[in-house]
Amino acid sequence: MGVSTSPPEKGPEKNGIAVVTVDFPPVNALPVDGWFALADAVRAAGRDPQVRCVVLAARGRGFNAGVDIKEIQAHGPSALAGANRGCFEAFAAVYECAVPVVAAVQGFCLGGGIGLVGNADAIVASEDATFGLPELDRGALGAATHLSRLVPQHLMRALYYTSRTATAAELHAHGSVWRVVPREELHAAALELAREIAAKDGELLRLAKAAINGIDPVDVRRSYRFEQGFTYEANAVGVGDRVRDAFGKERDERDEREGAQA
What is the rounded radius of gyration, in angstroms, for the C-alpha atoms of the chain? Predict the structure, then answer.
């Protein structure tokens, strides 16, 4: 459990690829420490002179379910501040990684997951992958910056306000997902793209990454930090806690009903 980094295949040869894998059962809702660990792993992989592409992957049912709401409910403002800082660092690490980052997404990609894949250089997704920001249902705001990199503006707004999700096929139609494959083929498809990228000259790839980031029309770090200010405001006036507590109560009641039916 946690964050691990490995080559794609056994043996001493890395083939220029590092696979950073997230594993926080049951749903990959990351605690504060998990976000910082992910940021450290991605940055370290990018600093490795032998690495020319990073694959960001996850184990389990879904790619990422965002922050650990139970941790925030248990520890209050300090946990909220930690989650915000951790998300900021993890999202920035993906964006600023010295080499291209390919996200391999299966199942649900929610909340903080959107921040990760929105800042990745390319996305490969399984057919069952869904993408969305349920932030308004969870007493928070943020990552519209990153969702707007995946879908057009008006769709981003509708998805944000409704907390609905978009499928991998829909994102592929918008051009933000490179390839959609059956879940059992996801790892191989992500590595296939990573190997094609990693076959290029490593020094030139790093220059290309810096050049592309330099011409981005939106500063994703400043834009996301601006959004985070409104999450703090929602928490300061009490609306964040009110919505989070209602969300937690509904979830617990649903779990009890499902347990009784089992």
Answer: 18
pLDDT at 153: 97
- Which pTM does this prediction carry? 0.91
The torsion angle over the Cα atoms of residues 26, 166, 247 and 84, rounded to 10 degrees, is: 80
Whole-angstrom Cα distance, residue 138 to residue 30?
A: 15
Q: Does residue 26 contact residue 70 with C-beta atoms inside 8 Å?
A: no
Helices (H), 111-174: 112-119, 144-147, 153-162, 168-174
pLDDT tens column, 86-100: 999 999 999 999 999
Q: Which residues have a Cβ under 8 Å from the Cβ of 121 and sit 6 or more positions away? A: 100, 101, 102, 209, 212
Task: Report yes or no: 99 and 49 within 8 Å, Cβ to Cβ.
Answer: no
The half-sphere exposure of 180 on its side-chain side, counting CA atoms within 13 A, is: 16
